[in-house]
Amino acid sequence: METLTATDYRPEEAHLLLRRMIVLDLDCNEVARTEPQMFQNLQTACVRCDSRPQCAFDLEHNPDDLAWHDYCPNVAQLKMLNVLPWSSRQEW
Predict the structure, then answer these.
(1) DSSP codes joined into one string, 18-54
(2) Fewest Cβ atoms nearer than 10 Å: which of 20, 65, 71, 86?
(3) Tally of domains in the chain
(4) What letter would DSSP give residue 72?
(5) How does pLDDT run across 13-31, given as a tens digit for each residue?
(6) 44 exposed, middle or buried (CB, 10 Å; 0-12, 13-18, 19+)?
C-alpha cells in the first residue's frame, strides 16, 4: 500500500472524520475555524488511517459504540475537543 503524505490527499477524503464529529456533536466548521492546524492534523490522520473500513462500518451500524477508541488515531484529540464549550452546541 502506498504511504500518503499531508499533501497527497484532498480534505473531502476525510469524510469519516466529519461523520465521527457529527456523532460527537462537534461542528467541523467551528473546529476548523478556531483550531485550523488541529483540524488539518485530524484530517491527515484520518485519511492515512489503516482502520478506515472498520470505522466506516462502525459509523454505519453503531455510531455510538465506543469501539472506535481502540483504533482511531484521532481519539485523544477528538475526546479533548468534545469536552470544550463550543458555541454551536445548544447545551452551553
Answers:
(1) HHHHHHTT--HHHHHHH-HHHHHHHHHHHHH-TTHHH
(2) 65
(3) 1
(4) -
(5) 789 999 999 999 999 999 9
(6) buried
Angle at 34 between CA 70 and CA 38, to 5 degrees: 35
Q: Please name the residues in contact with 89: beta carbons below 8 A apart, sequence gap of 6 or more.
A: 25, 27
> Do 11 and 43 form a contact (C-beta atoms < 8 A)?
yes
In a domain, residue 33? The reply is yes
Q: What's the pTM value of the predicted model, to 2 decimals?
A: 0.81
Rounded-to-integer distance, Cα 62 and Cα 27, Å: 20
Q: Judge whether 29 lies within some domain.
A: yes
**What band does 1 get if pLDDT is binned at 50, 70 and 90?**
very low
